[in-house]
Amino acid sequence: MTRLKLDENLPADLTALFIAAGHAAETVIGEGLGGKSDAEVFSFCRTEGLILVTLDLSFADIREYPPGTHAGIIVLRYAKQDKDYVINNVRGLIPRLDKEPPAGEIWIVEEARIRIRGEE
C-alpha cells in the first residue's frame, strides 16, 4: 500500500480514487496544512514517509528536492488542470503506481509518459 499526500491544488475527489485502488491517501487540507509553504508541506511528507502528489511544478526541481531524500514526489504536468481532466488522467497512472511506487524518486507525469528523476 502506497501512502500519499495530495496537495491542495488537486481535486479532493482524487483521494477517494486512490483509496478505492488500495492506497492510503489524505489531502494537505485534511492534515491542516492548507496555505502552508512548499517547504512545510515537503517537510511534513518527508517526516511522515508520504509520497506527495501535486500540480506544483516547483516540486520537480531536483536541486530543491533531491531524489533519495524523500518518499517520492509525483508532479502531474497535464495540458489541462480542470477537475475531470486530472481525474481521468490519474486513473491511467494508478496501475503504474500499483506496480512500482516512486520510492525516493520524482515522477513528472504527462498524458503520454512519465519522466523519472532518481538518484544519479
Throw out a few tags for this protein.
alpha/beta, 120 residues, single chain, 30% helix
Describe this structure in words.
The protein has 120 residues and is of the alpha/beta class. The chain has helices spanning 13-20, 38-48, 83-99, and strands spanning 3-6, 24-27, 51-54, 73-76, 106-109, 114-117. It has one domain. It has a 6-stranded mixed sheet, with helices on both faces.
Distance between the ends: 26 Å
Q: C-alpha Rg, in Å?
A: 13 Å
The main sheet orders its strands as 2-1-3-4-5-6
Structural class: alpha/beta
Number of helices: 3
Low-confidence stretches: none
The profile of the biggest β sheet is: 6 strands, mixed
Give the overall silhouette. globular
Beta-strand content: 15-25%
**Structural domain tally:** 1
Helical content class = 25-40%
Count every beta strand, where a strand is a DSSP E run of 2 or more residues: 6
- The helix/strand series, from N terminus to C terminus, equals EHEHEEHEE
Rounded average pLDDT: 95
